[in-house]
Amino acid sequence: MAAPTTPLAAVLAEGPVVLDGGLSNQLQDQGCDLSDELWTARLLADAPGQIEAAHAAYLRAGARVLTTASYQATYQGFAQRGRSERETSQLLRRSVELARRAARGLPEVWVAASVGPYGAMLADGSEYRGRYGLSVGELERFHRPRIDALAAAGPDVLALETVPDTDEAEALLRAVDGVGLPVWLSYTISGGRTRAGQPLAEAFALAATVPEVIAVGVNCSAAQDIGPAVAVAHAVTGKPVVAYPNGGEWDAVARTWRDTPLDVAALVRGWRSDGARLIGGCCRVGPRDIARVAAALAHP
């Protein structure tokens, strides 16, 4: 289960790298029940083989970055299910080990340890709103233990993802200071603003001078919002951009997904031209979609 020999940041300087897609939709397609509030994180304890199989499905589709099943894995969330801090630390480590195991034997596959937002732990859709009523310091104290545990497991990069507002972004950037790993910072957005309503230029600027940040961008957002955001992220930071949209839009009132047909090939080539270097999918983007992304990016 060795790590790749080339740092991800060095590869991004050469050209785009294909991310995986949504872990939850692939696990559901494999027959897993994700109705629990721990979502995919529950399977770290109950069905780790299913997580490894999902990672393998994306590798077969052409992904070269695997994102761990730790998005909703927190000390607080597992404590509510009777798990001790020691057990939670072991599960966080397992999330990295499962991705690394799935990549065994394949050259240059990177593992991104997912650090989801505070709202994911609440399991009430707060990650699509932000503004939790907590200070930056309180959010930093929430995130740091999990970040430290994931970093100790040896991923190649930390994915600070689905961040809804600049307060949480600031807290996360503080929490990774000195952790010794590269990170990417990815907001969830609506139109030209974060979910909490801040202008994207202001949001991306927070990461512009942070040395740990190797990419900045957007995820878990409507595909039509990705292109303009990629251009802003690259212009503001000069860093490689990460882009992985949803394959539909979440209707918070009806609590269901509205699928959005995507011309994946046309979209990703435009994103690449504007500075995107880590490109894949988020919710409702599966292995077949990632295969199309990989095919599109294989050609100039």
From TrEMBL:
<feature type="binding site">
    <location>
        <position position="282"/>
    </location>
    <ligand>
        <name>Zn(2+)</name>
    </ligand>
</feature>
<dbReference type="InterPro" id="IPR036589">
    <property type="entry name" value="HCY_dom_sf"/>
</dbReference>
<keyword id="KW-0808">Transferase</keyword>
<dbReference type="InterPro" id="IPR017226">
    <property type="entry name" value="BHMT-like"/>
</dbReference>
<keyword id="KW-0479">Metal-binding</keyword>
<feature type="binding site">
    <location>
        <position position="283"/>
    </location>
    <ligand>
        <name>Zn(2+)</name>
    </ligand>
</feature>
<feature type="binding site">
    <location>
        <position position="220"/>
    </location>
    <ligand>
        <name>Zn(2+)</name>
    </ligand>
</feature>
<dbReference type="Pfam" id="PF02574">
    <property type="entry name" value="S-methyl_trans"/>
</dbReference>
<feature type="domain" description="Hcy-binding">
    <location>
        <begin position="5"/>
        <end position="297"/>
    </location>
</feature>
<dbReference type="InterPro" id="IPR051486">
    <property type="entry name" value="Hcy_S-methyltransferase"/>
</dbReference>
<keyword id="KW-0489">Methyltransferase</keyword>
<dbReference type="GO" id="GO:0008168">
    <property type="term" value="F:methyltransferase activity"/>
</dbReference>
<dbReference type="InterPro" id="IPR003726">
    <property type="entry name" value="HCY_dom"/>
</dbReference>
<protein>
    <submittedName>
        <fullName>Homocysteine S-methyltransferase</fullName>
        <ecNumber>2.1.1.10</ecNumber>
    </submittedName>
</protein>
<keyword id="KW-0862">Zinc</keyword>
<dbReference type="GO" id="GO:0032259">
    <property type="term" value="P:methylation"/>
</dbReference>
